[in-house]
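My convention is simple: the sequence line spells out the residues, with the fold written below as integer tokens. I include a record here:
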Amino acid sequence: MKHSDVLADLQSWQKDEKDTREDVRESFHFLDDKDGQWEQSVWDKKKNSPRYTFDKCNYIVDLICGPIEESTFSIKTSPSNLNGDSEFCEQLNGIIRGIERTSDAQDIYNRSIRKVVKGGFDAWIPETRYRPGSFNQEFVFKQISNAVDRVWISPDSIDPTSADAKCSVLLTFIPWGKYQERYPDAEIKDLNESQLDVDDGVQWERYWYKPEGVTIGTYFYEKAEEVELALLDNGSVIELNKTVAERLELEGRKIVKTRKDKKSVWYSRDFSQKEWLSEPKLLPWKSQPIITLYGNYDVNENKRVYRGAILKLMDAQRVLNYAKSREIEESALAPRKKMMATRSHFNSKENRAQLARMNTSSDPVQFYDHVDGVPQPYETGGPSVNPQLNLLSQNMATDIESVAGKWAAQLGKNPMNQSGVALQSQIDQAALSDTKWGLILERAIRRLFTLIIEAMPSIIDVQDSLMSIDEAGKVSFVNVNEPVKDEFGVPIYQNGRAKLTNEITSDYAVDVTIGPAYGSAQKQANAALLELAAVKPEVLQRNGDLFMSNIQAPGMSLAVERERQALLQSGQIPVSQMTDEEKEVMQQQANQPQEPDANAILAQAEMLKGQAQMAKAQVDMENATTDRLNAETKRLEAMIKAQESGVKVENIQADTAKKVSEIEKNNAEVVNKQLDSVNKFIG
């Protein structure tokens, strides 16, 4: 690529988008400048008249952006092919949230959506950098400030995020001293040489006082490189190179066949109006790295068209300012009513004094000196305001709200005292028109993290520990690219490379959904739990830690910790929901011998005491039975002795009774021994 070709392309792209970019700039100036809501020609013409601004458009921006700024974007990954690991997705989601925190993503999202709503255009760019004091790199992304003047995309792109662009240019302003420091070998040595500045496409400038410096460009371009693909005997396909071939030979894996293919590789190169400022730099990205955010985006007549929410409101806002300013000029600033009289009418000192205090006097009668042949004093008419001005102002204010798609309820109004249901219906209806703005951020975030995941294998190519943040905001660290080793500590190879756990690959797809902010989500979760608990109270009992963790109050974290500990001990928290620390503690408790509990010992003693009392009662009962049997035996023996002749049956009965008595006596002795043992244990 020749330097002159890049300049020619840039000028062509700027010409193609001259009208749409001017609309974006005008929208920004309209909202942000002191006199931006006046047409310049009208402003100059009215320099000796009131020129007031009754800004209703910035409030419209706040109404649209406020709910989006109070939202969060849930980023989920899933395997995009058979090589992806579904179990690693949750950790990858946490790593992405870590990148968001490192980049201060929420602030970028909020500032970008305001740019898009205001003017219809903004842009981001991902970057890599070394972590301080290490050789490991990390991902961050940034908002491109003043993107309307700095970002230029090749016209072949029609994707709203510019993912399909074949090249792009990012212009950057550098103070003169920094330029000399960064490019000491640059041919241009004098700031006054006009050819040093790259044309940024701006046809007029709003501000006079700006820093002096140099505008350079960074050219991003795609280059197709030839690679060799190999099909292995196990069915897998790999990119063949010398290192992989050596590993395949060590593993004994065979190559079935190979073929040539092409892959896209992206480079960047800095340039000025006159020369290249750097050599080509290889980028880790798999597609054009600038991420664009367009409002109301469409492609018409092979041209990208876009705008913000304010462009269509400008006319009504300007007419409102003109009408209200003229209305004020004709009323509040108009001359007051005056008394017209000749000097001869107030010749007397008393009447002159009375005239001087006329505007403040409460006297019912005012006197003057009559002069024959001279008309009596009279009063001039007061300011006369054109009634159409007030009507025009009201109509323009209503038009601004209707064109913006805002109902009275969303503006905090309640005409005719409507019911809560009617008001909520209007708010919901107005929110539907704002949904498209949140979807712009969803699309850009999906594109951003798709770029980052695609680049991860080339940037995070060694064993590393990455910051991970769960959905509740808890920070931990995930070990990635850890080699799997056999029982001898030797790394295991698979498909020509070492087998890894938590391996960083690009085999994942990204999905993004917008939802309420974390604080709002907490309130919604608690409200849902309370509604469910009204029907099933046990739900709240089993989820007390979740309910309490959503309450923001001093000391609540301690209460949550105690509640969770109680749930853990009662076995109501599944193992799958336990943290690693909790699992470790539970395992240690299971392996340790249980020490006797004082309360349990007392309870056992009381139980044994009760058993002893029952045993004693049983012994008493057995003794009574034995006494009765003994008495009966003696009676039978007496009857036998009294009779001279015995009966065989009676002898048998007597013998049986005697044996039963002996058995009962033996049982009583055994029970007495057990009772003695229990008493000794208790004592």
Remarks:
- The chain is about 45% helix and 20% strand.
- The mean pLDDT is 80.
- The two ends are 101 Å apart (CA to CA).
- The first strand starts at residue 71 and ends at 79.
